[in-house]
Design goal:
The chain is an alpha+beta fold. Helices cover 40% and strands 14% of the residues. The protein contains 4 helices and 5 strands, in the order H-E-H-H-E-E-H-E-E. The strands form 2 sheets. Strands 1-3-2 form a 3-stranded antiparallel sheet. The chain is globular. It starts with a helix and ends in a 7-residue tail after the last strand.
């Protein structure tokens, strides 16, 4: 049976998975984890992401910056570095 967290927020993603998904460095993901909807589990602890929160954060950025193009399937992000600006 699926956990309540997974049902509500989607699969848990690591920093590495998010970096690969967005085609940016892990260091960039760590510096900008809050902008990407990430959660730090404790002070200077592990950073995790939930799929739905990541997509929600990106979609919010897109609404604020109309020059970005994003495919929810992860196929295409144009000007992805400006996503974190």
């Amino acid at each position: 049976m699926e956990s309540l967290l997974v049902k509500q927020f989607g699969k848990v993603l690591s920093v590495c998975e998010v970096a690969n998904y967005l085609d940016i460095s892990e260091k960039t993901v760590c510096r900008n984890y809050e902008k990407l909807g990430g959660i730090r589990l404790c002070d200077k602890g592990k950073i995790i992401f939930f799929e739905k929160l990541l997509v929600q954060s990106i979609n919010q950025k897109i609404k604020n910056k109309s020059s970005l193009a994003f495919s929810v399937s992860g196929e295409f992000i144009e000007d992805r570095h400006n996503l974190l600006a």
